[in-house]
């Protein structure tokens, strides 16, 4: 039977320092080898673990940036669609406004032309009436001059006095009828 001091828990048993050899006690050598391997792994693996964490953090950051960029792109596309629809609406409203203004302008031009035509017709009618009145006055004047000329050539003093007396008599009877 072995003593407790010979077990691997108690590190009191060591082979002599002057010789090199293999320790065949598997229970004593395995924990030492495992602790050395684990120590080396922890020492060198820490850098790998930190690098892995850094890579994962970079991937997460890039995913977040990607999601943010996608979100901004969607917002920008929504704004673009909104601006395009407003531009189309303004374009359509602008064209309809232009058409409305064009029709209003055409209508006002037609109205102005009709008014000018009416003014022209009134001016022509007024001129015609003025010319007709002038012609009438001349015709009347010529007729009166002709009648006076005929009367002067045909009338003598006695005929003239009888005509004046007859007219005065007619005037007197008309005056009595009007007063009655």
UniProtKB/TrEMBL annotation:
GO terms for biological process: proton motive force-driven ATP synthesis. The gene is atpF. Its main location: membrane. F(1)F(0) ATP synthase produces ATP from ADP in the presence of a proton or sodium gradient. F-type ATPases consist of two structural domains, F(1) containing the extramembraneous catalytic core and F(0) containing the membrane proton channel, linked together by a central stalk and a peripheral stalk. During catalysis, ATP synthesis in the catalytic domain of F(1) is coupled via a rotary mechanism of the central stalk subunits to proton translocation. This is ATP synthase CF0 subunit I. GO terms for molecular function: proton transmembrane transporter activity. The keyword Transmembrane applies. One of its GO terms (cellular component) is proton-transporting ATP synthase complex. The chain crosses the membrane at residues 31-49. It is a single-pass membrane protein.
